[in-house]
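ok so i was messing around last nite and threw this chain in just to see what happens. nothing serious, just curious
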Amino acid sequence: MLRRLPILFILILLLLALSACGGKAKYLMTKQTVCDADGGVRYYILYEYDKKNNLVKETDYDKDGKIRYYTTYQYDRDGRLVISEKYIGSKLESRAVYKYDDEGREIERKLYNDSGVAYSTKIYTYEESGYTEVTYGENSNLQSTRKVTMNEKGDILRVEHVTSLNLKITEEYAYDENGYLIKCDVKSEDAYNVYTLFIYKRFKRKSTCA
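result:
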């Protein structure tokens, strides 16, 4: 059974970056601050991007501003993520390698430890209304499945998780008339239920959990 997690109040700061993307402004997250229920900062994350607005580095800091770890991202000529590496200090902790089909959809994600040994593989299959993600462990044992249902715009509507212990967790998403995410409802079989409300105001995006 899952233990009830503490409710987090997440404040997200966004950078308004102008890009030639259909003549619309694109929002890039530059900092995420995670607080506890009393408003104290637990940790925060800084995001860095290249000239094509691809995320190239994600740095996690503790509440005192000390780096806990960071992750770098590499892309191919088509802008697809092909390698991500997580470092603790200067030491490589793990690496992920991504593969795609002819339509540019991710079909495999393989995770390696610091010794270069693969310990997890995710396989993706696609349907008209979404896709299914199956995760296998080091010995090809089934660890979990994740079925994602999307609308015609590509927005996620529902995610169904099934763990290796056959525990089922469901996420349901709701959007406003402008296509902005306004609610995420998470439920599990042990009656654990948390929802997050997303509120948008002008060029800033705020979120509160209840």
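not much to say yet. The chain has no helices and 16 strands.
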